[in-house]
Amino acid sequence: MEVILLERIAKLGQMGETVKVRDGFARNYLLPLGKALRANAANKTRFEAERATLEARNLERKSEAQKVAEVLDGKSFIMVRAAGETGQLYGSVAARDIVDALAAEGFNIGRNQVELNHPIKTIGLHKVTMHLHAEVEIAVEINVARSAEEAERQSKGESLTSADAIYGVDEDALRPEDFFDPDADRDGDEE
Q1: Which of 36, 94, 103, 181 has the largest count of CB atoms under 10 Å?
Q2: Residue 86: what are its φ and ψ, rounded to 5°?
């Protein structure tokens, strides 16, 4: 099915372009959300008549998204979660958790604007991309830790999952001879 795009859509095209898409994508996503019109003569003339208002509205949305991006840029959000000694979370941090953390700070971001291909399942610092507008995207840092104190230590660059942090052992001080005795008889027969 051919459609006229009413806004820029990633990997598809710019506003005003006529593109061919699969019928289901058009019927279930583009048309119901008002992102496109069916490409016929009546809609083409309608689009050309409304083009100026659509471009103005798109420019307004983009400027609003850029303002939010300027405030969010470089921010770090702390997520306190229960985790084992190795840093593996007992649960996970999903896009909705990130949206809730942003909402607590006063940012109105939709779950579909958070690009998180897989839930976060380990403690540590994670970069998450936000698509605030088709042309505006930023990365925020999600600091997942077991407590606020650990999150602060983690933000300073300290690793909480290394052998030193878990067992109180300095990894650099470990030597192979601490674990392996070269003089030991391995085959079991006495000579």
Answers
A1: 36
A2: -85, -5
Q: How do residues 56-65 score in pLDDT, each as one tens digit?
A: 988 898 999 9
**Higher-pLDDT residue of 22, 183:** 22
In this prediction, residue 172 has a pLDDT band, given cuts at 50, 70 and 90, of low
Contact 182, 176 (CB under 8 A): no
Half-sphere exposure (CA, 13 Å, Cβ side) for 146? Answer: 13
Count of beta carbons in the 10 Å neighbourhood of residue 153 = 15
Contacts 24+ apart (CB under 8 A), 169-176: none
Both tokens of 43, joined, read 């809609």
| Radius of gyration, alpha carbons of the chain | 26
Contact by Cβ (8 Å): 114, 79? no
pLDDT, one tens digit per residue, over 111-120 is: 988 998 899 9
Q: pLDDT value at position 154? A: 86
Domain 2-61, CATH homologous superfamily name and number: Ribosomal protein L9, N-terminal domain (3.40.5.10)
Q: Specify whether the CB–CB gap between 19 and 2 falls below 8 A.
A: yes
| CATH number of the domain located at residue range(s) 73-170 in this protein | 3.10.430.100
How far, rounded to the nearest angstrom, does the alpha carbon of residue 25 sit from its chain's CA centroid? Answer: 24
